[in-house]
Amino acid sequence: MVDARQAAYLEALGIDVYVRRGLAPKPAVAGVIAPDTVSGDSRDAAVGAAATADGGDRTTAAPDRPSTGSEALDWDALRATVSACERCALHSTRTQTVFGVGNRAARWMFIGEAPGAEEDRQGEPFVGRAGQLLTSMLKALGLKREDVYIANVLKCRPPGNRDPRPEEARTCRGYLERQIELVDPALIVAVGRVAAQTLLETDAALARLRGRVHGLGARQRPLMVIYHPAYLLRSPGEKRKAWLDLIEAKQVFQRLERGEQVLS
Ligand code: URA
Q1: Helical ranges in the chain per DSSP H
Q2: What is the pTM of this model?
Q3: How far, in Å, is the centroid of ligand 1 from the Cα of 133?
C-alpha cells in the first residue's frame, strides 16, 4: 500500500496513481523479468547485443584486479587513501575524489557508476539532477539519504562524463570492496547498467539484470539492480518499471531482515 507521503514522492517521480494501485509485484524474487528493450545514452543504455544467453552472472573475481592495499583499512584511513589516490589517470582531471556518503552502518547501500560534474565539484555522490531523483526514489521507499550509504564504482569523475573504462573500474574496485565490507549492508542496490555490469562482472543487459537478486562476490551479498535516475530523466516512460523495481527491492529487504533466503 502506498501512503500519502509516498504518493507525494511518486508524483514527483511522475508515476500515475492508477499504476500504483494496479501493481501486483511478484512476492518471489528468483528468475529474470522478461527482457525489455532499454534505450538511452552511453551512460545508461543497456548493452543488449552483449547479453549473456542465460542472463546469468559471471561473478568470479578477476585475477588481474590490482590490490588497492585497502583491505584492512578503517574508515578514516580508507578515506585518506582514496583522497590521495593517483593509481589511474583520472586523478589528473578531478577536482577532488568523491568517496561516499551516508550511514556507515546502513542496511541499504546504493552504488552508482562515477561522479559527474556536480559531484566532482561538491565531493559527494549523487548531488546533481540525477541525484535529486535518486533522493526522491529513496523517499518513495521510506528512506532518507542519511539512512543509507551511497558510493560509486569510481571515486573520480571521468572527463566529459564518459563511461568508466574497465581498467579504471578494476583499479578502483578495492576501495569500493572495502567500503562494502565496512558498511556490511543487508542489501546492495546497483544504480544503473554500468554499476551493475561492473559489480557483477557481466555484460548482460540491464533489462536482464533487474528484477532478481544476485549474489555479489565470495560472500554472495544480495544485490539488486535499478534503473539509473539519469536514464529515467531522459526516459520518463520507464519510471513505472523503476517503481516496480523499488517495490521489489523493498520486499527483498524485508525478507532479508526476517532472515529469509532471497538469492535466486
Ligand atoms: N551518477 C552516478 O552514477 N553517480 C553519481 O554520483 C552521480 C551521477
Answers
A1: 4-13, 17-21, 75-83, 117-122, 129-140, 166-183, 193-200, 206-209, 229-234, 239-257
A2: 0.81
A3: 11
